Amino acid sequence: MSHKNLKVALIGNPNTGKTSVFNQLTGLKQQVGNYPGITVEKKIGYSKLSENLKATILDLPGTYSLNASSIDENVVIELLLNKNDPNYPDVAVVVTEVENLKRNLLLFTQIKDLEIPTILAINMSDRMDYKGISLDIPYLEEQLKTKIALISSRKNIGIDNLKQLIADYKTLSTEPCLNASSIDVDYFNRLRHAFPKELLYKLWLVITQDVNFGELERNEIAEKSFAKSNSELKKMQQKETIKRYQFINDVLKVGYKVDSSKAKGLRAKLDRILMHKVFGYVIFFAILMLIFQSVFSWSSIPMDFIDETFAKLASFSKEHLAPGLLTDLISEGIIPGIGGVVIFIPQIAFLFLFISVLEESGYMSRVVFLMDKIMRRFGLSGKSVVPLISGTACAIPAIMASRNIENWKERLITILITPFTTCSARLPVYAILIALIIPEKRILGFLNLQGLTLMALYLLGFSMAIFAAYILNKILKIKSKSYFVIEMPNYRLPLFKNVAINVIEKTKSFVVGAGKIILAISIILWFLGSHGMSHEYANAETIVKERIQKQGLTRFNQNYIDNTLSEHYTALQDSVAKNVYKINSQDIADSIAAKKIELFEKVENQEISSFKLEKSFIGVLGKGIEPVIKPLGYDWKIGIAVITSFAAREVFIGTLASIYSVDSEEEATIKSRMEAEINPVTGDKIFNFATGISLLLFYAFAMQCISTLAITKKETNSWKWPVIQLVFMSSFAYGVSLIVYQILK
Amino acid sequence: MKTLAQLKIGQKAQILDVNIDTIPLKLLEMGCLPGNFVELLQIAPLGDPLYIDVNDSHVAIRKETALAITVEVVNETL
User: ipTM higher than 0.95?
Assistant: First the structure.
């Protein structure tokens, strides 16, 4: 067998630094994709082993053994059992950690049973002295029938040696370390007779695992050999595990020595503080506060920049491209659509920066420990903390983070309630509504009332998530065992490279997951908003011009012209007075007249496009749902914005901007325009306190994010749950907004 | 006969038996097997979960899992 391109699989327990090894081997030459049909990340990288030998390196999800208990782990087994898989490795590298070698070797002995050439990489070897560990490498190599690479992925030690071993993979032994079939000789003999061509261990895995193998059918095996009950099988698995540990213990007794007088380490001391029954929680909440504070203050700068850049890009393309449908599509559909995705990148990236630092350092596991009992009262798991925190950035990576919750019921509830947390897409909507209905006052001298309202909304989202979990826990009749095992890794300084790559991946999952949908919807909305069938739509220009001639401009626009003109006049007067220009009164009058025409044309155009929008497909739609949303205090214009923001919440503002024919998306402009909006029948303000609160609550609770529904579908593998999520959240939002509006009105 | 859930913080014990029907295989694979040693390191506020060191693996498990593991306390001076 000669390969130009060697296929290498990196396998290992979680927390062994496997990903660091992967990063060291491949540098930034990696691709992250998904395994078909499931959202488990597939990480492939490329490494140059020598001048003429390249390797494709596959970083498999971390697993403790080949007995899979999650979809991530299934991926590992499915690949290793299927020789026809295009990624089936020529050589496996089992990454272990020197301090946990005993436990890590369990997986190693299983891989060896599959008769794949296997290298044992012992990571974090730089800590051996500190921990008083010494290894007898030649002895271990002989007993484990492998080659050992002592490496330190953090300090980049031994990576070249590892590459060399990979290149020489043909010299590796494929003999198993121990004979696991001795746990039930009779049973395995039968298996061997029934399938003489197959590996015994492979058959055993097919029997005991609930995964897809393609070539081998479990039923077929059960037919040809005698079937065992699940409990018998589990008993055999336990025996197998004990057998493997016996072997490992015997080997390590000779080959692995620890001088226990050496430092016991930082762990105990830090644990005592960070997991303290009082300080533990205080520290955790302080860290949370710090994270949110910094996320908001840091991300506002790049967000403003992105906002401006895309606005400029849109107007630039509008001015410089040949006018026509395509240009409109680009400048009104595609560019704002992409901008609407990019604007969230800073917040999401900063949040995941913090989260991955907490995870890398080992702290997050302690939080899980502290929160488990509390969360369990609501049907959640301590492990739900990570999705709930991530949810404040974006529900998509947050829902994906629920994957390591073992208990299906707890995991399902976590998935269903995560969208209640206030994600970054709700912020712009909250910001403008709060500015509109909450006075800018301070209470007690330093608490900003608007800021407090925003905080209250965050708490509301979180409490609602918890409350919904409580209800779901009561309703859902799913029996599942309360499995919960979490490793408490050693505390470590996070590695910049790992954190950076993690942040990029998480952000990418948002951009790819939400981005595609937001962009597609923006384009559809642009189409629906800029096309219409009615006679009025086709003749919008004439109709509006006639109306303006008869009735004048709308009051807001008339005021706008008057005010701008008087400012212009004062400015001119001032400059004359200061002798900047010497001009006579005739010139001033001319200038004013010119300005007036310019302003009039601008306003006229805005009124035309506003009228067009009203008569477009989407306008018709908005009017159609008006009866349904009227009891919530919304008119058809808000209705349009509610419809368009069904795809993604932040679209609300852009839609209102175009409905109210404001030319820029600048917050102040939209805000003043919204303030001026009057109910044509009653003459009252549309955005009064009651409507504002009703809208805020609607956006807090409603399921306004197609991308989240898509990810729920993927993670739960059924349409049932996203549909329940949508119906439950949105009808709840409707109910709450209805009640609150009717009371406040 | 004691279960792991009845240990005091800092106490060490040897595992006598585990009820394999109620505890996750993952825990067995981490070395929570008859014959191995276990130390109760910490108990979370509200009494659950438990933080243990078993077979040099530092893990947190829930109380119900700990109840399925019978242990024998080893001599403190050992």
Answer: no
